[in-house]
């Protein structure tokens, strides 16, 4: 290399080194930070932002996003809580652009749509959704070709610890997500597999199989009634038979339950009451039914009360801040008027995963007793 070329190379290296030396290193950020009183501090480094907001699934539908304050070195800081012990998900809005927490490695894709960051607020004792040192079940993903829809479909299955080592058939819970959720939601966001592992280990739940298909199955746009018309034969004629060919399940209706949240709760209650020959236990968590829709949706389901009175369990739960709470209260009243034995549980909470998770825990412990 000539002396001229060497001088140019050294000059370029010096320029690059000076450029890196002049670039400020982003400060170390801790987020989220849970205090002893269960208040939570959130931080994000956004030196060029003019506004940063925080939203989380502990918030009610009328709650406004939490504004963060700009501090030194371009770090924005905000607080929430105190929060009840639970697992939550949140996201930032940086100048109107949704963003996960870059300081938090717990990121999931919710409802097949957008990423969000996870937050665990522990209680004094471990909660059923927290990881515990107990035997673990297995989550499987199954695929099949739907003749009804002319496309490939998939569903998730939870098998309890020791399932592979036994030959005995097990009862089945069909667990449905909301919309626009996916078959993965009860595992990735709901932590249902953790809940079942822990309840089984504590002998508060009999070992069972859990079938988790998608609830929103429309291939094109349509109403919730359109979705029901497509979902009902898909579940009864294709998904359930495909599952039963692959897994050792008890195939009598008294050993089958169906439950879900939001749209999944609406579908579970509808199909559970329509098909006593398939299901004898039904659960709905914040099911998406308005008061005006109850007679149209369920009128045929209770036309023959004798078929419904032999139910093992009809269980409705809802958060007191849920947008569907009035419809759920009315459904409970109508069931009582029709003399259909049922339970209605209203707990603090909104139309959100923490509420649905708490309701699932209550419902699961009543199954197959």
Count of separate structural domains: 2
What is the number of E strands?
A: 18
- The CATH architecture assignment of the largest domain turns out to be 3-Layer(aba) Sandwich
Measured on Cα atoms, how large is the radius of gyration?
A: 25 Å
Percent strand: 25-35%
The first-level CATH class of the largest domain is given as: Alpha Beta
CATH superfamily of the largest domain: Alpha/Beta hydrolase fold, catalytic domain
* Low-confidence regions: 8-21
Q: Quick one: biggest sheet?
A: 8 strands, mixed
Fold-level CATH name of the largest domain: Rossmann fold
| Cα-to-Cα separation, first versus last residue | 85 Å
What does this structure look like?
The chain contains nine helices and 18 strands. The chain is an alpha/beta fold and 369 residues long. It has two domains: 33-121, Immunoglobulin-like, CATH 2.60.40; 138-364, 3-Layer(aba) Sandwich (Rossmann fold), CATH 3.40.50.1820. The strands form three sheets. Strands 11-12-14-13-15-16-17-18 form an eight-stranded mixed beta sheet, with helices on both faces. Strands 3, 4, 7, 8, 9 and 10 form a six-stranded antiparallel beta sheet that branches. α3 runs parallel beside α9 (353-364). Residues 8-21 have low confidence and may be disordered.
